[in-house]
Amino acid sequence: MKAKRKVGIWLDHTTARVIEYNTEELKATTIKSDLQGLDNQDSLQHSESLLHHKENQKLKAFYKAIIAIVENYDEILLFGPTTAKTELFNLIRKEHKYDHLKIENKSAEKMTPPEEHDFVVNHFKTLLNYESPFAK
After folding, report:
1. Cα dihedral: 66, 71, 75, 76 (round 10)
2. How far is it, in rounded angstroms, from Cα 70 to Cα 8?
3. Region 85-95: what's the mean pLDDT?
4. Which of 131, 122, 135 is nearest to 8 (CA)?
5. What is the mean pLDDT of residues 4-8?
6. Contact criterion met (CB below 8 Å) for 66 and 16
7. Bridge-partner residues for 104, per DSSP?
8. What is the mean pLDDT of residues 11-27?
9. Three-state DSSP class for 28?
């Protein structure tokens, strides 16, 4: 039986830290959204509707970059302080080609990289302890 690949992703609307489940070492990749680029100067020159559209496009590109990484895993933990984790979850679930992925959402505050790693390790270790040896 092939070992399942597991990953945790701490995210908000500006940053995602992709933390591969590994009990020994911290392996993480950071993805930044381009939302910081929307500054006050832009808002002076453009309508609110246009800015909202621009923000949505940048957010979609951010989520698409994360999805390109997570599609290589079997189990995914999305965690963080904002609604970004739920928005990403819903986008992934819209695509039926990802129906096989086991995805969980958890609320979490801002963390240091070692705290994020520990959060991911503890989550998947806890799941292992609760899973039956007879489960598929």
Report:
1. 10
2. 9
3. 95
4. 122
5. 93
6. yes
7. 77
8. 88
9. strand
* Alpha carbons 133 and 136: distance in angstroms, whole number: 8
> 80 has which bridge partners?
107
85 is written with which tokens? 């984790």
Q: Name which of 31, 15, 20, 30 is nearest 73 in CA terms.
A: 20
Nearest by Cα to 82 from 33, 136, 15: 15
Task: Give the start-end residues of each E strand in the chain.
Answer: 6-11, 15-20, 28-32, 75-80, 102-107
Q: Amino acid letter at 1?
A: M
Cα distance between residue 88 and residue 94, in whole Å:
10
CB 79 within 8 A of CB 107: yes
- Calculate the CA dihedral of residues 81, 116, 17, 90 and round it to 10 degrees: -50
